[in-house]
Amino acid sequence: MAPNVLVIQADQFRADCLGAAGNPDVRTPHLDRLAGDGVRYRNAYCPFPVCTPSRYSLLSGLHVRQHAGWTNRCTLAPGIDTFPRALRRAGYRTAAVGKMHFTPTYLDVGYDHLELAEQDGPGRYDDDYHRELASAGLAPVTDLVDQEQEFRATAPRSYWETYGSGRSDLPEEWHSTTWIGERARKAVAGWSGGGGDLLHVSFIKPHHPFDPPAGWDAMYDPAALTTLPGWTDEIPPADERYRQRYFDFEPLTLPLLRRVMAHYYATISHLDHQVGLLLDTLRQRGLYDDTLIIFTADHGEYLGFHHLLLKDGPMYDPVVKVPLLVKFPGSQRGGETADGLVSLIDVAPTVLATCGVSPATPLPGQDLTDPAAGHDCVFAEDRRQEAAGMARAGRYKLLWSDAAGEALFDLATDPHELANLVDDPVHADALRRMRDAVARWALHDATPPTYVDPAAPSHRRVTGDDRAARQELFAAEVARHRP
After folding, report:
1. Where are the domains of the chain?
2. Averaged over 37-49, what is the pLDDT?
3. pTM of structure
């Protein structure tokens, strides 16, 4: 019997914000239980710390320089295979629920059925979630103010002072996390029971704004929270150029940070609750044991590291590392913790190997069903505001960018990435080895331009009039809520 596959993805989820990862405060009992039934990868990295490029890498098993999806407004080029397409060819029933962040919104990447809840750009005016909100006369005002520049330009002072953290203006039953969780459970309830089903569930949260619904917003006392490793009282001189990315981070204080953490953790606990309900559905149907379950995120979150928030800045570990939990079918490897270097490009080959399906072309990632899987070096890139990259091998990590030059860190002695060793002769050999690894990696593939095709094959076409009607309704709601 072909195993079922459940891929659960979060957005902007810092890897150490799990109870199973040793976080002393956040409550994630259901994800912790999943970790206990599978393998937790302590050193999992995303290939690009931005939503769409990272998601296309997860789907295709390719680095961004191979699939050419460099921005949040890009299309996965025709001819690039994905694990959903490969499974569909093998007879799987394939579906996705939640945030995909495609262009066009309903791009066909191999899913037979899409039920979308988007957040950024035109997708939010095209998708199922916002259609239902509009039909119910509701608007995600807090989210619109945080995400849409036309509304953000006139955001109230409280938004800036709290770094976009606070209670959601939507009731829990209409919060995106609840909506996505409910539709995911409905999809799993419709599985045949005989194997051969794939579901990709992708939550918007804990991506900013940090706005848990009422009840969840009071779950954590900010004053009682432990500051995460890497907080500095001021922005380090090397990072000063990143102080104004989305917010001005210089005024960030520990009390403000802990308020942000309280709401960030609350969105995680709300997400964990929905994951628990979803996994319980699998158990009730007798499908849990024989389903491949993967939980991960597209990228991380600074959450105070170097006095920063969000993700726009250097590729320090909190923003480029991701949680990765893999529960293999059967009782294989339950409760393991793996220290090897892995990447989101390893998800596609792992899914295909578990399902007995060969990739259409060789993939650079590794099959994590092998307990010895791991890379000598993992890489990430970012080409939005400047060309930048990251390489991690053993204890060393190399960052580079057109604007800031190079930085070499010894994570064994400097886990918070504060001491740049590029000019230290003691580490000259390590620097040379890291540079050589980057050169070998970049040599294989050129840097193609971003591929965008709004007319690419998709499941649903959205008319301009249809989109404009929702834009008008939501704009009116934002205006009505202005102080």
Report:
1. 4-370+469-481
2. 97
3. 0.97
Query: What totals of helices (H) and strands (E) does the chain contain, helices first?
Result: 15, 14
Mean of the pLDDT values across residues 238-247? 94
Nearest Cα residue to 368 out of 383, 349, 395, 388: 349
CA torsion through residues 50, 76, 322, 27, sign = positive
Element (H, E) at 269: helix 254-284
Structure tokens that stand for 126 in this block: 């095209």
DSSP state of 181: H
CA distance 283 to 275: 12
- Partners of 210 in the beta sheet? 165
- Residue 2 has φ and ψ, to the nearest 5°, of -70, 130
Is 390 in a helix, a strand, or coil? Answer: strand
DSSP SS3 for 336? strand
CATH number of 4-370+469-481: 3.40.720.10
Mean pLDDT of 139-155: 93
Average the pLDDT over 220-244 and give the result.
97
Q: Cβ distance 144 to 474 under 8 Å? A: yes
What's the pLDDT tens digit per position in 48-64? 999 999 999 999 999 99
CB 450 within 8 A of CB 74: yes
Output the CA torsion 142→143→148→154 (10° steps).
Answer: 10
Give the C-alpha separation, 250 to 256, whole Å: 12
Whether omega for the bond prior to residue 212 falls within 30 degrees of 0, making it cis, is: no
Dig out the tokens for 312 from the structure. 């726009």
